[in-house]
Amino acid sequence: MTDLADKILAGDRRSLARGITMVESARADHRAQATALLDRLAGAGRQALRIGLSGTPGVGKSTFIESFGMMLTAQGLRVAVLAVDPSSARSGGSILGDKTRMERLSRDPNAFIRPSPSQAHLGGVARRTREAVALCEAAGFDVVLIETVGVGQSETLVAEMTDLFILLMAPAGGDELQGVKRGIMEMADMILVNKADGDLKPAAMRTVADYAGALRLLRKRAQDPEGFPKALPVSALEEQGLIKAWDEMKMLADWRREHGHFTSRRAAQARHWFETEVREGLLARLHNDPAIRGRMGDLGAAVAAGEVAPAAAATEMLRLLGAAGPE
Ligand SMILES: Nc1nc2c(ncn2[C@@H]2O[C@H](COP(=O)(O)OP(=O)(O)OP(=O)(O)O)[C@@H](O)[C@H]2O)c(=O)[nH]1
Ligand SMILES: [Mg+2]
Hints:
This protein is of the alpha/beta class. Helices cover 54% and strands 11% of the residues.
């Protein structure tokens, strides 16, 4: 384990991949090793800029990550790409097949691409991705990009584990804003309207103006300097607007660092994930511990038969779990 930790700290990509496989494993002995590894690496105190990227299928996420990633490595930065894929239906995760589409980036020695772990349970995916981020940081990556398809809960998960959350949008046909939920707009630190090229350029510029207007209408957040969150046009295909987008991201991250928001966001996230782990651990015991499951079944039957009041039965279950009952 010490050997693996040292190799990850030295930036060895094969060891990083092995470490990620370990955190993704469901085996109890692997879990214990992974926890020890993460604990050892945490001491290194390395920090990457964590960027979440979300967008509907076909908006150009893969193309963007390839172009944006190449732009970053050309600036001498090391870039890791991870994915949170909420749909287990999509075989092998979203960027597995994409490694061929991200052909240039996957061959770049300063880039590391890891497909999404195939796991039905989103909570499990979240933990594994978070831990993979920690491993990439320890391996000295400057930027960790986390991609997710914009469906449902996964956006919130990714926003809760990143420093910047970026929404990638397509040019809208008419003057209607694409059905972006208000809650998701409120999470965005930047909206990038992709495909601002060729015939689509005028529509893209109108869409940028529409989103800029919509963002201005949202409640001002303490973690934003004047003029943020911004909407900007990009073309992932023609590699336009990428440097500008990166400069704005850096500006925002630097401002947040100077004003304490960067650290406080990470602290709040760490606390959130700690509490989530405890909650999920309790739930897992409820489901997996045979003795507890048995008692749950017996008490459930007794409650159903009217022999025990629900509250009294719940108090007994919580006592069994070592947790205090409701006051
Ligand atoms: N014109 C134009 N087309 C683009 C641009 N970026 C991506 N595309 C095209 O849009 C299509 C979808 O691109 P992808 O990068 O695969 O999109 P995605 O968001 O990763 O899609 P999923 O992985 O299915 O969610 C492809 O045909 C791309 O060539 C762009 O900047 N301009
Ligand atoms: Mg894709």
